[in-house]
Amino acid sequence: MIFIAILIGCILGALIGMNAPMISYTYSSYLAISIIAALDSVFGGITSVIKKNFDLKIFVTGFFGNAILAILLTILGQKLNVDIYLAAIVVFVGRMFVNLAIIRRYYVDKWLNKIGKKNTDIKEENEN
Amino acid sequence: MKKSIKKGKITVIITMIIVCFALTLVMSMQFKIVNQTDITSIENMREAELRTELANWKSKYEETDQKYEETIKKIEEYNTTSQSNEETEKLVNEELEQVNLSLGKIDVQGQGIEVTLRETDSEEIARINGDDLLVIVNALKLSGAEAISINDERIINMSDIVDINETFVKVNGKRILAPYVIKAIGNSSHLETALIGNGGHVDEMKKIGQDVSIDKLNMVKILKYNEDIKLKYAQ
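Predict the joint structure of the above. Result:
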């Protein structure tokens, strides 16, 4: 069910985004950093689902809050002539890699367990 | 219990749809923008890029400026050489004029004398012939005449004065008739003295009764030699 919802949302977003009007190039830099923040919170959400402590409120607030915070930091950085957005990128992508690692470990373990279980089942059958 | 679970699930689904929609929307917009903007145009550049672009343009401008200065210098050089060419041209032209003048190919005027020799009807007095003209012209040349003409035929170095059948005189190959007007430009007094003074030819002619008169004038106009001077043998 959830997967279908996710899929529908993605397709809708892609379609409308392709035909959206053009924004000027300077605003596109803010959009970019907000995308990275959003992606990071998505992966965090997936990790929490795996660990079975998924909380919708935290996920949603994290999603939009991180995006807005990232945009604000970029603007501040431009005003101060300091590239603050670089630090935001480092942190978000770092966290993305950490979450990805957790997801990967979980699924690899699951798959190995599955294979292991199959072998032991076959063994038991043979013994029997 | 089931209702609350279902309600929870519905909210989850709706939130997931909204979240995914927002994410993909923003992503595709960003892709489109980056694809379609020309990153190298100045209006779309950020500060660091502007800086490098400005430095590029500055060095280009300086190069072009230098080339421009060199070209201007070259143009000035050409101008001055063409000016000096004009000057040499002027000099050469002046020289040409001088040469033509002394050759007899230009009209001249200046102080001098006019000698008029008229035929008399009397049969006793000898006719004026070419020899008379020759002697007079020689005497004028001796006394410093700078230009001589007989009946407006300019006498140049190769001019000939001949008698034809003792009937008429040919100068420069052209037949001329009395009265013979010999014009000469030079110092009027010297020229006159050469002809009138003791033993001067005009004096002799007058003695035998021929009609000769000399006019000293301040402005004598002598026309140019009209034919072409062709040298076939002299090289």
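Residues 103 and 157 of chain B are 8 Å apart (CA to CA).
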